[in-house]
Batch of 2 targets.
Target 1
Amino acid sequence: MRPVFLTPLFAPAQSLAGIGPRLTLLLAKALDMPPGVSEARVVDLLWHLPTGVIDRRAEPSVAHAAPGSIATLKVRVLKHRPGPRGNKKAPHKVSCEDDTGKIDLVFFHADARFLERQLPVGEERFISGRVEFYNDKLQMTHPDYIVAPDARSELPLIEPVYGLTAGLSGKVLYKAVRQALERVPEMAEWQEANWLKERNWPSFNEAISRLHRPLEASDAATGSVPWQRIAYDELLAGQIALAIVRAKLKAQAGRRIAGDGHIRAKIAEALPFALTKSQVTALEEISEDMAGPYRMLRLLQGDVGSGKTVVALMAMANAIETGAQAALMAPTEVLARQHLETIEPLAEKVGLRVGIITGREKGKPRQAVLDQLATGEIDILLGTHALFQPDVVFSDLALAIIDEQHRFGVHQRLALQAKGKAGGANMLVMTATPIPRTLLMTHFGDLDVSRLLEKPPGRKPIVTKALPVEAMERLILRLKAQIAEGAQVYWVCPLIENTGKSELAAAEERAAHLAQLFGGENVGLLHGGMTGQAKDAVMAKFSDNKLQILVSTTVIEVGVNVPNANIMVIEHAERFGLAQLHQLRGRVGRGERQSFCMLLHKSPLGDVAAQRLQMMEATEDGFAIAEKDLDLRGGGEVLGARQSGLPGHRVANVPNYEALMTAAHDDARLLLASDPDLTSTRGEAIRTLLYLFECDEAVRLFRAA
Ligand code: ADP
Ligand code: MG
């Protein structure tokens, strides 16, 4: 359980003065909430770090106030001059002065009575805002702050600026943040004294306070000293949590799974191809793990089209040879069905029984699968998230495989794994996303990795070309020629912002347009709003080469496999990230035919978008693309808005996070080696850290042990 002294931080943001139901909703929008948390909490305000500051320290006399600059002035109120009645456009002006000169405060659409109360004639006020020169006079339009001399401390001399959302003002947010800061309890230091001293890092409390109440403008800058401290805290929490999960999994003795190979031999014979060297190596590594005394936790990383499915099937066969069962979970219905389609025919040939459970299986058929699963009549269970449901009970699950891991969280992985006997199955995670090492560490800590480095033989490089959308007519002529020779085309239409058009409408429109040119019977449409059956039907037609063009919204899932499809057209390619473009392109280049990827874009292209498309033209190497992606995103595509290059982290996205991550990784290992149960003084403090960054899962494992 989370220690009670942290409770105030995890209370809903509504518990703060000035935050009602409406603002709570806006906060949830403006703050970068962790997955699964819909209501903003106090702690979420702490992690919402400033994007910059407004420096109000300049306190000149009126005569010395520089037009165009932000200044804080101490003035006497002389006179109110409301705009003439009936003229709503004329502002309300307030003349003020100090001993050196005069300045007007200017308010549009003002409430005169309210202003008179705020700025009583004859009294002194501190005002802060931008000084302007207008009609030969100094003025300040809508000062940001107006405070009485005795409330001077309410005027932040260095004011942090936050990412906001429509309807949420910086002032309201800042007031809430300051209340959140007051709720930070005193906590025992969890970092080592030497480490802090070497880096000149302050305590957690001082660091978080300096970020939100900067003393120097540099305090709130990305990667500032206090920021580094908190970033390291977050990274360390993540690394310790992962190390704990991993250590506990390893410590729970697994069962040695070593099949005799008879099913695998039959599968190999039934396959129309020989396994690649990479596939063979990966399978050896997996078999070795499964035969070992510990539970396997291995990542199978292979670029799109590298042939992970066969590896999964062989690994499952290994488990089944010993009389146990295996499960393969996909992130979407479409993918789960696709697995069924690939695996079932092979399974039938070699006598394996396959079942599927997704959100679509209901009632009796679903129950039938569950029954067969419980009695062990089903060897391989395929499915989606639905596999987590408590009534999905295996007779003896020995291997759980998750495809496209990045869409699942750590605890989902644990939930599936826990369905094995004695609380654990061997686990294989498959991903096409070439995750750079630092990100792997973030997600998994120490994870064993097998890589499929080579693609199946006979693949031709995909010709990738970026084209301005004006070239669409030419493109269509070329498609006609290609289709006449038997080509099949994916055509992806993304959401187009600011046109008021929905993604669906854009795709429907394009499909209608292409149907006119290519004949309605040759063009299919796939979108997220369709029922599962309807999607299957369209996919099946495309797969059977009964459709030549498949227009879709972005639902073409990672993993869809139609080897004959050889052309990918992506409209508004400038709107996609590199990873997504690479995934989409991976749908083609799987067969004998020369493949093409056409990236249609609007012009002129922004700088970052142009770099992305150039990268796509230049290489098919998923690794190089992933690195470029991090690079581009780390640079911050949107000025002022920090883009997270580190998924799952709230504050750790500092420029040197790789170095911090590596240090945190080592720190976590050393700590757990000397204090595996976190019972030392530092260990106790570390538990607080884990709760603070919501790594509760990891702490829970201690109690389970
Ligand atoms: P991914 O790694 O993207 O999941 P798939 O498992 O869908 O890739 O495989 C892509 C295609 O490559 C499939 O059509 C599959 O049958 C084929 N394939 C897999 N392994 C080989 C191989 N060793 N030789 C030839 N084709 C293969
Ligand atoms: Mg796949």
Target 2
Amino acid sequence: MNAPAAVPAANFLRNQIESDLDAQRFAGKQWAGGPADAARLQSEGQPDPARIRTRFPPEPNGYLHIGHAKSICLNFGLARDYGGVCHLRFDDTNPEKEDQEYVDAIIDMVRWLGFDWQANGTEHLYFASDYFGFMYECAEALIEAGHAYVDEQSADEMRAMRGTLTERGKDSPWRNRPAAESLALLREMRDGKHPNGSMALRARIDMGSPNINLRDPVLYRIRHAEHHRTGSAWSIYPMYTFAHPIEDALEGITHSICTLEFEDQRPFYDWLLARLAELGKLAKPLPHQYEFARMNLSYIVTSKRKLLQLVREERVDGWDDPRMPTLVGLRRRGYTPEAIRLLCERSGVSKSDSRLDYSLLEQALRDDLDPKAERRVAVLDPIKLVITNYPEGQSEACTAPRNPHDADAGVREFPFSRELWIERDDFREEAPKKYFRLFPGNTVRLKYAYVVRCTGFVKDDAGNVTEVHAEYLPDTKSGTPGADSVKVKGNITWVSAAHAVSAEIRLYDRLFADAHPDSGDKDFLDHLNPDSIQTVQGWLEPGIQAKPGMTWQFERLGYFTADLKLSTVDKPVINRAVTLRDSWTK
Ligand code: ATP
Ligand code: MG
């Protein structure tokens, strides 16, 4: 399976896995060809062909973003590196917000990142909702063993009784009701006989625990809601904290890797699995949870709620707007899977929260594209340059390397002629100090063509320069013996006006102007960058085929990609993925 990684650095997760493997902690672990409870493993289990099992467990309630990429790279990467298998599991236990649209988009993007979930002839693609039946059996078994009860308090009452960090909780009046009564009520809950919120199933652990998560957490709640896969089969749904350990155990996960905010849940994770193993529902070895710090980046927000708000309020043009930190957005912007994997590798694995500078993401893209992107020329803010001593109607070929780092890539050809487009900024009526490009009397090289001397310019009635004039020095063509006969300090890019391809070019910048748009009590919407998109009509090197997804370095300008949705060869729409240099970090 799977994409090559940069050389992985040691981290606490790798150390953990290595010591687990050395100690043969999973020796004797069974696998029954798919998720299995203890009974099925007993009858059908074979030695597990996977040395470790990890999982990426998205909830299908939104599009994946750059933070998810970290979890994907980590889980799939560890499985790949240690002879294991990584499962893609949809944690679809929350019916209201989930949808098949998100399932499809997530599958698509995990594949795009270069990972897959096939191993040993099996597709390891799973849905938590497929385990609802087994989870329910676990709930009944816990009640029968005295480990759970149905509580008829309202959510507010339960909260009031839960206590605080310094004060123990109080027992619910229903805590010691007979198991048979709880069982009957749970069945009624399941059968849809009670309204939302009227009762809930709770674990019976310890209302005096210093860990609030162990003060009889809720396991099941009533939700009369349609589920995108199970329809109206269920009117109760398991809580994430109950469902997740069971999902891991059924799938034989060895290392259940999650983000730091779940650290306080680990005692419950272990408690629940230990009880279910004692009750004969789950087989050992049981999974173990490990926590690492989220990957946070400056200048973005990744909360699904906030991303959804940007989309709903049309602050951006959909989930795949090229300014969004979603993977669909980054792909459309021109990000490569390799660049994203590189960032995830470089960001390391840590136990303490931090925020990476956004420029690291941009640098990863430059580092990925520099050796492989073909070079082309484009002019984004065009002004006409007329070579007054070059014959009208004549043209000649110039050649340039497709990729200066790769001699095998060969050369490209494009015509030189009398009228060219150059960047407006490459001409000044009066040159400031250290300005070496075109100004009256100065000579510069037109890259891959001739040295020219600026002879004048034309202005319109409003005083704007509309045309620059120059004469070329015929012996100075690049690649000919005379090329070095004249020394110049400036080297500018150009395209032949009669041959260039017109294109709509979208110059993107960061979506937020503030490095921490949602920190403290800031409203992230107040910090949108008003200049995050600028659309220009520019000119591209002739011969360019702007098929969706094609990526180039436009010399001197940055990396650009033909828009996946909008670009056609006849009507190119080009996104700037990243500039050549970082202009934000000072
Ligand atoms: P939200 O809280 O905004 O809904 P989430 O993180 O809960 O997002 P999930 O679909 O549950 O979204 O995430 C799937 C997996 O991705 C989880 O294991 C989660 O820990 C991990 N993940 C999400 N964001 C990050 C991040 N920034 N860095 C690393 N892992 C992340
Ligand atoms: Mg989540």
